[in-house]
Amino acid sequence: MPTRSDRKDKNEGKTDRAKGRMKEAGGALTGDKSMKREGRLDQRKGKAKEKKAPPKAC
């Protein structure tokens, strides 16, 4: 059964992915390559946090 910290990791992962998508889109609109790169990094970091959390029990 997932613990509170596991759910926290998964939620933080989703938040990081959303934040990353926004940064990447903002970077694409403004032409800011470093912001776009930072957005991709945040998305990868979020994906890793989500994978770290154990799957839900059926």
Query: Main sheet?
Result: none
Query: Unreliable runs, pLDDT <50, ≥5 residues?
Result: none
Structural class by helix and strand composition:
mainly alpha
Integer-rounded radius of gyration = 14 Å
Our count of helices gives 2
Tell me the distance between the termini.
Answer: 10 Å
Averaged pLDDT? 88
Element pattern in H and E: HH
- Specify the helix fraction band: over 70%
In total, the number of strands is 0
Shape: elongated
| Relative strand content | under 5%
Short account of what is shown:
The protein is mainly alpha-helical and 58 residues long. It has helices spanning 4-30, 33-52.
Describe this protein with a few key phrases.
2 helices; mainly alpha
Q: Can you put this structure into words, describing what you see?
A:
The structure is a single chain. The protein has 58 residues and is an all-alpha fold. Helices cover 81% and strands 0% of the residues. The chain has 2 helices and no strands. Helix 1 (4-30) packs antiparallel against helix 2. It is elongated.
